[in-house]
Amino acid sequence: xxxxxxxxxxxxxxxxxxxxxxxxxxxxxxxxxxxxxxxxxxxxxxxxxxxxxxxxxxxxxxxxxxxxxxxxxxxxxxxxxxxxxxxxxxxxxxxxxxxxxxxxxxxxxxxxxxxxxxxxxxxxxxxxxxxxxxxxxxxxxxxxxxxxxxxxxxxxxxxxxxxxxxxxxxxxxxxxxxxxxxxxxxxxxxxxxxxxxxxxxxxxxxxxxxxxxxxxxxxxxxxxxxxxxxxxxxxxxxxxxxxxxxxxxxxxxxxxxxxxxxxxxxxxxxxxxxxxxxxxxxxxxxxxxxxxxxxx
Length: 296
Fold this sequence. Notes:
By secondary structure, the protein is of the alpha+beta class. Helix content is about 20%, strand content about 35%. It has 6 helices and 18 strands.
């Protein structure tokens, strides 16, 4: 089994827990994921299986979330974990106020990760320092938000839909919005509805995974269908053998291959004549392709 299986993660287990359960259900150790979801979050968690694990770094892509932000209380974790009760709705906050409060979170900007995050500080995960009551100040990271819209606002709960590049923390958005509004805020619910090209419509539940195991083959997206935005090159037998040993091969097509919007123009997928994906190569001067990922 080689490819991507999209799991609809329930609230509770960590992403690592889901991977461990998938390894048991599918009977293979070669499983990873393309981007962590917090334990309280639900939704799209693509699992890379078999030789698709080598493509994980290219499959992150942008993410789309539906988030419930509770106004009226800031929390240590920036979410509802450990919260004693739902805070009363802050008075005087209107949807226009919220819209103005969100303005600075569109486009590209520097964002401080939550203290309880997997970011490393002097080699130690931030959440480990926070749990031990050690000083935690993760370094701000450059993030990009492509879309951020209010879907509803009622009784202190703001529901937003956000599409962002990899590395964006929705928990920080919730906390920082509360700071902007002067009333405090935290993330009450989070559902990821898309991760890169993978959507909730093509997902299976953990229950289905553990019940059906290897019978879920029809739900696995094969490696040949992954990364369609990267132009493909079909290699002759001699070129194929060189590529499989990591040696440069030549792309002799003229004129140059079209590059799909949003793709990396410096990458090519390498296929053999039988349609098997061999790997991914970087474009080098002189029409050379240097394999950086080999799958076979």
